[in-house]
Structure formats: C-alpha cells, structure tokens
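Q: Structure for this?
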Amino acid sequence: MMQQIEQLTDGRVRMGPGTMYGVLKNLLEKGWIKIVEEAGRQKIYGLTTSGYEVCLAERARLSQVLQHANDLLKGATDEKIQTLPK
Amino acid sequence: MKKFKLYLNDETEERWVNEMSRKGWQLTKFSPFVYTFEREDTVYTYRNEMITQRPNRSEYFAFLEETGVEIVHANPFWAYYRKAGTEESFELFTDTSSTKRYLEKKLQTYWITLLFLLISMLSLFLIPNIVQEMTHPVTASVMIGFAVLEVLLIVAIFSIIYRTKKHLRSL
C-alpha cells in the first residue's frame, strides 16, 4: 500500500511505516476501514460504508476547492501575469 | 565487533550507526554503552525508535516486518530497525503530524524520567540522621558520588529535552 501511494503521487507522498501504522489505527478507530481478511500475520483492510461516504464527501470538498480556484483564476493569461507587480 | 560509546542523543546515535553501516559494520545488538556490529557489505538504513509508549508492541513489529523492515534488536525502551537501501528510502515517520506526535511522546517520557530522578535525589534526605551520618567519610563519599551521578543524569536529560523541543519547534 505504501508503494502504491508513492507510485500514484509520482513520489510526492511518501509513507513511512510508522506513519502508515498510525493512519491505519486512526481509520480503524473511526470505523472508516476494517480488517476483512487475516492471512497469517498479513492483514487485508477494506472500506466500510461510512468510510466510503467519507471518501465521497472528501472528493466533493476537493472538487469544490478546485472549482473555487478555477473561478478565482478565470481569465488568467500570460499577458495578465505581465501586468502584475513583481 | 563490540563498540563502547555513550550517546545522550538518539538522533546522533542513529547517524553514527548508519555511518558504521556504510563502512560495512552492521548493528545487530545494543545495550546501554555497548553496541555489537557484524561485518556485512549490504547497505542498510537504520532507524531507532523510543517504544516506551507503544501499547501493542508485537503487533507493531509484525506490521513493520510486513513492510519489509527488519527488527534488529529491541529492549523495553528502544528499538533499532533496518532496511536494505539508501537513507531516503527508509523513514519511520514521513509527515509532520506523526513526527510531532512521536517527539511529544518522547518528551513526555523524558519529563517522567526527570521527575523520577528528582524524587530519588530528594529522597536521600529522608534517610534518618542523614546529616550526622555524613560525618562518616565512607557514607559521605558514597552519598556525594550518588548525588553527583544524579546531577549529571539530570543535566543530561535536560539537554535531551532541550534538543527535542528544538526539533519540535523546527517542524
């Protein structure tokens, strides 16, 4: 999972095992994920309904943020940048 | 090979252990002052962690091992881990909030240790007739030796607290 995160973000987000462990604990406590399979010592985690809802809500929030940025930067052109103070 | 060293700062100690690894000496065991190394040419990155505040240690270690981390050695207070590869490839904590939480827990342990030391030092005065006893040269020198040791430990812990706080502020 840690490698997947790194690949997905082109190496921008790196997940150390100490951080990852804390994140998983936190998500479990919140009930957003749960252990769906335990193969020996390996644990497979899966989203719960509330976790899925949180993901959707977060996606909506982020797309709203993007929308705001687009609105604010509407008509941003190279010429306009030239007129701004350095 | 055994090396005898005294490190007050775990971050400096970790740097030294990694330098030793670059030279082909791999840490396999540690206890206060004594570090055991074995000759091996693999390049490892070592990380240490204070684990006094880890509630479910075996579960945590199992998790680390699953991510390809090797538990080199652990005592009830500290653990050393390693992973083959360069220093950038293995970091325990990679974001500000988890690093901060770890440093804060470390600070908490240091404060508790300090409190414990201060109490044990003050409790010397609870020994009956301590002032009269101090006239006896043997008792006096044992007492003074003990007090000096305690003061040194207290100063050391203060300096660790100072450095940890500085690190926290820089985040």
